[in-house]
Specification:
Blueprint: H1 3-28, H2 31-35, E1 38-45, E2 50-52, H3 53-64, E3 69-83, E4 86-100, E5 106-122, E6 125-141, H4 148-152
Parallel strand pairs: 1-6
Antiparallel strand pairs: 1-2, 3-4, 4-5, 5-6
């Protein structure tokens, strides 16, 4: 395999890793993981929020203060390099979001769509420079009426925000989120 192909494969993996890091960051309210997914000058259009990535991160973290539960999954990642340092990336996502609305009533929404991203490689790192979220499905659901402890029963541990989720205990054993 020639050197150019090896570089392309490692670049593809770095882009995928960034997307997965974003999902961990948004689901675990992990500010460092979120920030490591975007360039400081990045722009983000999430529908409910449109502006700087920094503003989106602050917006998302404020939502987490209400104690929501989020689950994001990424699939069908299509990476198209436009140059050695730029790529357009389309990733399908499924997100289940549960938390209080402005009146304090618990809402649950299933969202499906695509992240349409412009990735840039700077100083050897791939991160999001521009993101537009395209929504292809939105379904309001009736949230479960019973408390999580009752619903989950003996299935423990239950996912938690940073730094309380069990995945962060792995870091104490030498595992660290690469940025």
């Amino acid at each position: 395999m020639d050197q150019e192909k090896i570089i392309e494969l490692t670049d593809r993996e770095a882009i995928r890793d960034c997307l997965y890091r974003y999902c961990r960051g948004i689901d675990r309210a992990d500010e460092a993981a979120l920030r490591s997914s975007y360039w400081p000058d990045a722009q983000d259009n999430h529908g409910a929020y449109c502006g700087s990535a920094d503003g989106f991160i602050r917006f998302a973290l404020a939502v987490f203060e209400t104690g929501p539960r989020n689950i994001h999954q990424i699939a069908n990642i299509l990476i198209e390099f436009t140059s050695r340092a730029e790529a357009t990336v389309e990733s399908y996502f499924t997100a289940l979001q549960r938390g209080p609305d402005n009146d304090g009533e618990i809402r649950q929404t299933l969202l499906c769509g695509r992240y349409c991203d412009l990735f840039q490689k700077r100083e050897g790192q791939w991160r999001i420079a521009e993101r537009t979220v395209v929504y292809d499905w939105c379904e309001e659901q009736t949230p479960p009426a019973v408390a999580e402890a009752e619903r989950f029963g003996p299935r423990r541990p239950i996912g938690a925000p940073y730094p309380h989720d069990p995945v962060y205990a792995l870091g104490k054993h030498g595992v660290h989120v690469a940025v």
